[in-house]
Amino acid sequence: QVQLVESGGGLVQPGGSLRLSCAASGSDFSISAMGWYRQAPGKQRELVASIISGGSTNYDDSVKGRFTISRDNAKNTVYLQMNSLKPEDTAVYYCNAVGSRGSKWDRFNAWGQGTQVTVSS
After folding, report:
1. For FRET with 4, which of 76, 79, 85, 116 sits at 20 to 30 Å CA-CA?
2. What span, in angstroms and rounded, lies between the C-alpha atoms of 51 and 62?
3. What is the DSSP pairing of strand 91-101 with strand 115-119?
4. How many angstroms separate the CA atoms of 26 and 12, rounded?
5. Residue among 55, 49, 34 nearest 89 (CA)
6. Within 13 A of 113's CA, how many CA atoms are on the CB side?
7. % of the chain surpassing 70 pLDDT
8. CA nearest to 34, candidates 66, 78, 4, 68
9. Is 88:121 a contact under the CB 8 Å cutoff?
10. Over 90: is that where the pLDDT of 1 sits?
11. Mean pLDDT across the stretch 73-84?
12. Residue 114 half-sphere exposure toward CB, CA atoms < 13 A
């Protein structure tokens, strides 16, 4: 099994910054892409940002220019730097990783437990 552990959420005032981290652990696995999703109360989970092993990134329009996703392949860790936070960014943020594992390189799709981000004055 591949496990994801997130950290870095919390309460921040509008205009502030937070940095989320997500570390993947397990054995015999290779990650092809990692991403951050968020889910606000009463809304569907949505993709915020993603990054593939080669380094290409993708962002939702609502966070472009404010959020930056990065990845440390050696540590199997993905980060989300969130600047200029707005109240509408309030949500539970989930880390996601897809890749292959095991002797047969079976595909996996793993999720973290979620971390709360609250933007409020």
Report:
1. 85
2. 17
3. antiparallel
4. 32
5. 49
6. 7
7. 100
8. 78
9. no
10. no
11. 95
12. 11
Q: Looking up tokens 């509408």, which residue turns up?
A: 88
> 22-37: per-residue pLDDT in tens?
999 998 899 999 999 9
The type of residue at 40 is: A
Question: Which pLDDT tens digit goes with each residue over 8-66?
Answer: 999 999 999 999 999 999 988 999 999 999 999 999 999 999 999 888 999 999 999 99
Q: Which of 64, 66, 65, 59 is nearest to 37 (CA)?
A: 59
Measured CA to CA, the distance from residue 83 to residue 102 in angstroms comes to 38
In whole angstroms, what is the distance from residue 56 CA to residue 12 CA?
29
Q: And the tokens for 82?
A: 């969130």
102: tokens are: 């095991």
How far does Cα 3 stand from its chain's mean position?
13
CA distances to 7, 45, 79, 105, 121 from 96, in Å: 13, 12, 12, 18, 29
